[in-house]
Structure formats: structure tokens, C-alpha cells
Specification:
This protein is about 55% helix and about 10% strand. The protein is an alpha/beta fold. The chain starts with a helix and ends with a helix.
């Protein structure tokens, strides 16, 4: 029978979502029973462990309450249900994400061989191309909670306080397995020595580099930026993988418009022509235009969406995008 310490270790690792530790202790229990001559029980335990390992990542989300104390100002927790099939991706990017998911689902087997699954990811690319959705999809596919780091709570004007809060976030990755998402990462990852750099930001970046290098948790740490060119070069080698996001090509826009509008549209809509009109828009802008079309049809009680309606909303999004681009110059 399992010892008191083993029972405590099993419960603790289960509560923290630490699958690798849980399976390791469970195997120790099976080995202990084998040594005591309980061969059949040991075999049954090993079979149960093998079945449980094959199901890692397909279970319900690891339970986590609302972060308390100081962490309440640093982490925003949610349990996304998004799936990879909901994303429209290029072949290379889709392959990268599927590889991350596969490695996480077989993490126990990988760790047993002295290897490490990919879990530190840097996402780069223009706004609206799917970086934030990726964090939700990975959490949804793996059954992990999504814990978004709140930069407004993390970054302060007091010397040393931001680095101390950053350490609390990394300590949380050890206690609660999840997807920890740093959006707008350039706020803390910009190059040391830039003209507008200040000493505190340099210290924060140095702290992040040290903490992510030393991180041995089983959580995913994901950082996203719209401006990879201003990131410190030392950051890139700290991540297991860098995933680059692009604006959608015509074929991807067609898929997105069809997925959103085809069931509610009239026949013989020229999707390819509409996709050409939407060139240069992000996934988020195309999706927003599609939603506006559906809302307009509901308000005006039109039974079906017309091609002219879709064209009008895409032109409107192009006008808005042009104005925003001009404002940045």
C-alpha cells in the first residue's frame, strides 16, 4: 500500500496539475507493490498509469480558483474552449502548433527519456493575426487554464518592484500548470541600450531572461509581440520556438469569409473577388466585417446576406484601417 508521503505527493501533484510528478509517484507505488509480491496489483497499476498518460491534455481543465492576494493583480484566469480547428493558418504555422500540442500531450513520455517538450513560445506578427487566439487554443486543446499576465499590474515605477512581481508569476507556473500569456511583450522585452530605455526596464528584462532560463515548471510560457524588431536579441534563444504570424492570403480570406458567412449567404457569391477586396486586412478585421454583415442583416430582417452587403462592410474596414495607418505615421 502507498505510504503516507506518497499519498500526500499524489494529492499535491494532482491539485497542482503536475502530471509528470503524479505519474512518477504512481510508478513508485506500483514498484513498491511489486517488491511486496503483489505482482497482479502492480501490473494493474502500471496499465492504469499508461492509459492515464495517453489521455494527458484531453481531460477537463486543471482546476484553479481566482488568483488571490498579490497574484489577483498580476494574473487573469480563464478556461478557454477554443480549438485549433477554429483557426485558419498557413501550413508552416499550423504544423508548429500541432507539434507543440503533440509534445505536451506526450510530455510524460518525453520527460522520461531526459528530453523536454516545447513550452516556451514567442509569437510575433502584426495585430489581429491570431497571436492571442493561439494562447486560448493551446489552453483549450490541452485542458489548461489560461493565465494572462496583466502588464498594468506587473509594471510599476518603483525600483525592483516589477522584478519582484515577475518572480511571483514564475513561481505560480510551478504551483499551477497552465498557459501563462505575456501579451504586448515588447513592454518588458525591448532592447537594452535603446535611446528611450531606462534603468528599471533593463533590470526587468535581465530578470525575465534569468527567470525564463531557470524555469523548470511544466507550464507553457507564451509571449506575444507586434514589434519583434525591438526585442532584445538575447530573448530569442530563451524560447523553445518562435512562431511568426502573417496577414492572411487570398485563399485564407476566402476560407474565413465562407466559414463565417456561407450558411447565411445567397448563392453564387464571388468569394474570391471579395477576398481580393479584403487584401491587407488582418484576420480580426475580416472577421469583424463578417460579423457586421450578419448584424446588419438581422437588424434589417433580410433572410440572406448579399454579396453587395459583404463588399460594403469590407470597404468600410479598409477605410478604417487606412485611417489608423495614417494616424500612426
Amino acid at each position: 500500500m502507498a505510504s503516507g508521503e506518497q499519498l500526500k505527493a499524489l494529492l499535491k501533484s494532482h491539485a497542482e496539475g503536475d502530471d509528470d510528478r503524479f505519474f512518477s509517484v504512481a510508478m513508485q507505488v506500483a514498484a513498491h507493490e511489486a517488491r511486496r509480491g503483489h505482482g497482479r496489483l502492480a501490473e494493474e497499476l502500471r496499465a492504469l498509469i499508461d492509459r492515464a498518460k495517453s489521455g494527458v491534455g484531453t481531460r477537463a481543465p486543471v482546476p484553479i480558483g481566482r488568483p488571490r492576494g498579490e497574484l489577483a493583480n498580476l494574473l487573469e484566469a480563464s478556461h478557454p474552449s477554443a480549438r485549433l480547428g477554429e483557426m485558419i493558418l498557413g501550413d508552416a504555422l499550423g504544423q508548429q502548433l500541432r507539434r507543440v500540442i503533440r509534445e505536451q500531450r506526450h510530455a510524460g513520455r518525453i520527460v522520461e527519456r531526459g528530453l523536454a517538450p516545447r513550452r516556451k513560445l514567442l509569437l510575433t506578427g502584426p495585430p489581429g493575426t491570431g497571436k492571442t487566439l493561439t494562447a486560448s487554443v493551446l489552453a483549450g486543446e490541452l485542458g489548461f487554464p489560461l493565465l494572462q499576465v496583466r502588464l498594468d499590474g506587473l509594471i510599476t515605477k518603483y525600483m525592483g518592484e516589477t522584478a519582484a512581481k515577475l518572480r511571483q508569476v514564475f513561481e505560480a507556473t510551478m504551483r499551477t500548470r497552465g498557459v501563462y500569456f505575456f501579451d504586448e511583450f515588447d513592454a518588458i522585452g525591448s532592447q537594452r541600450g535603446m535611446a528611450n530605455d531606462v534603468g528599471e526596464i533593463r533590470r526587468v528584462l535581465n530578470s525575465f531572461l534569468q527567470m525564463i532560463e531557470q524555469d523548470r515548471s511544466h507550464s507553457l510560457v507564451i509571449a506575444a509581440t507586434n514589434n519583434p524588431g525591438i526585442l532584445d536579441p538575447a530573448l530569442f534563444r530563451r524560447f523553445d520556438d518562435v512562431l511568426h504570424y502573417e496577414l492572411p492570403e487570398r485563399a485564407q480570406i476566402v476560407r474565413l469569409l465562407r466559414a463565417r458567412l456561407s450558411p447565411a449567404a445567397v448563392k453564387r457569391v464571388r468569394w474570391s473577388t471579395l477576398a481580393e477586396l479584403a487584401g491587407g486586412l488582418s484576420y480580426a478585421e475580416v472577421a469583424r466585417a463578417a460579423d457586421e454583415v450578419l448584424k446588419d442583416a438581422l437588424i434589417h430582417e433580410r433572410p440572406l446576406v448579399r454579396e453587395a452587403d459583404i463588399r460594403l462592410m469590407l470597404e468600410e474596414r479598409q477605410t478604417i484601417a487606412a485611417r489608423l495607418s495614417a494616424a500612426k505615421v
